[in-house]
Description:
Radius of gyration: 18 Å
Distance between the termini: 47 Å
Number of strands: 0
Number of helices: 6
Order of helices and strands: HHHHHH
Mean pLDDT: 87
Largest sheet: none
Low-confidence stretches: 1-6, 132-138
Amino acid sequence: MQQMVMLNTRPQDAYRKQDVLTASPVDLVVMLYDALKRNIVMGKRGIINKNVPTAHKHLMKAQMILTELINSLDMNYQISEELLDLYEFALKSIADANMHKNVEPLDPIIEMVDSIREAWKEISNSNRGTMQLGEERA
Length: 138
């Protein structure tokens, strides 16, 4: 029975699972932002194509990702309060877009997600560089 499950698994899913299992915490945040953007874009496309079920599904996934990002904030840091404000704004905008099937609120959110994702990616890259320097010294 387990062999049948393996036969039905797509290779992309296996790679994605391996990426998640081996990712650093910062890389996991970058992956969340990638998934967030992907779902917002797919939701927007669903609205444009008048495919309500697709739009709803992807915009709900985007809201779930934002909720996960909110739950992962450490409120002992000032930046967390600022991120919370942004995440809550994004949640409201996505819910509004989903409720009214209006793409207008989504574009600023996509830009915001891109911007924050880039910052996390830079942190990830700088952490990798620091790790490599540390490994060379060892």
